[in-house]
Fold this sequence. Notes:
- This protein is α/β, with parallel strands linked by helices.
- The chain folds into two domains: 170 residues, HUPs (Rossmann fold); 141 residues, Argininosuccinate synthetase, chain A, domain 2 (Alpha-Beta Complex), CATH 3.90.1260.10.
- The protein is built from twelve helices and 14 strands.
- It has a five-stranded parallel β-sheet with strand order 3-2-1-4-5, with helices on both faces. It has a five-stranded antiparallel β-sheet with strand order 10-9-8-13-14, covered by helices on one side.
- The longest helix is centred in the C-terminal third of the chain and has 20 residues.
- The radius of gyration is 25 Å and the shape is elongated.
Amino acid sequence: MAPKPKKVVLAYSGGLDTSIILRWLQVEKGCEVVTFTADIGQGEELEPARKKAELMGIRQIFIEDLKEEFVRDFVFPMFRANALYEGVYLLGTSIARPLIAKRLTEIAIETGADAISHGATGKGNDQVRFELTAYALKPDIKVIAPWREWDLNSRTKLIEYAEQHQIPIPKDKRGDAPYSMDANLLHISYEGKALEDPWVEADDDMYRLTVSPEKAPDKAEYVEIEFAKGDAVAVNGKKLSPAKLLAELNAIAGRHGVGRLDLVENRYVGMKSRGIYETPGGTVLHAAHRGIESITLDREAMHLKDELMPRYAKMIYTGYWFAPEREMLQAAIDQTQARVNGMVRLKLFKGHCSVVGRKSPNSLYRMDYVTFEQDSVYNQFDAEGFIKLNALRLRLGKMAQGK
């Protein structure tokens, strides 16, 4: 029988659920708890988490700003692949989990902890994402997932446990929340409770990053994004760090109602779930990246990327960021980006984002070849042989049917 964990690093938000988990680890498991709170752009003040952890007797508290690492090392590589899960989802929650789990595991190593813990439920994808990452980076790590063990399976029981163990309960947490929410610099997701019926439209006052398209400005706004080796480096001529660039695009796209998605998706654990997402800056960045690739990537390289993309997106969604197959695909994708340089101009208007211009010093687009006017570089007669050779197997097949 494996020894019980003595010291555990908890992914801690400072909210009610993870505060209950913290006390549960102390009381029910007898563990010394280390807390880790990551700032990945969720837009909340994190010092209250420190104070709450201190009140609950925590001696080792880690609160770290990971916004730049998040965008530079996780979001940008994913956007080089144009990754969309099930054709539409920009993977805002999925891509944050390997970073949090990576740092969680690193802190466990640094502090001599023998376990990590998280607040993901046994019905969701996040438990898989956290734990696959942890096992990939530290194969002997122990994982404590309270939602798979305890019997605190209702809001009432959670409140009762909090009251019993002197955990402060904000007034707005005493009733059932209308939905759960997860935020980072790339997006906000909403799911559960009031959103579980996929026929019922969400209330417009739920959204936090985007205005309603109907209430967006009546005048379109143009934005120009510069790329270097497949990554965005400037917005409207202003060089910005990865995190600041994404924040700038969030603000611009959000005021035009760009980036809302209402989706019924297939979870890794087998069920379908309804989620609503706001990804304003990411929606613009995705369109812009495809725009710059359209003039800089070879046709077959682009088509092969598009064939590989669903597989790559599924790897991220299902938690395999640190798997060898994702790293292999990433190397292939990154090799294609060496000449993906230049500028894309986009038009934002009432929820829509359209590429309206693109230019690059590495452009494969040649006006002297594509013009409908007279040219001296393309012999149209060559097309006859090209078509006949490509039609040969079709003609032979039809001839064979006639025998």
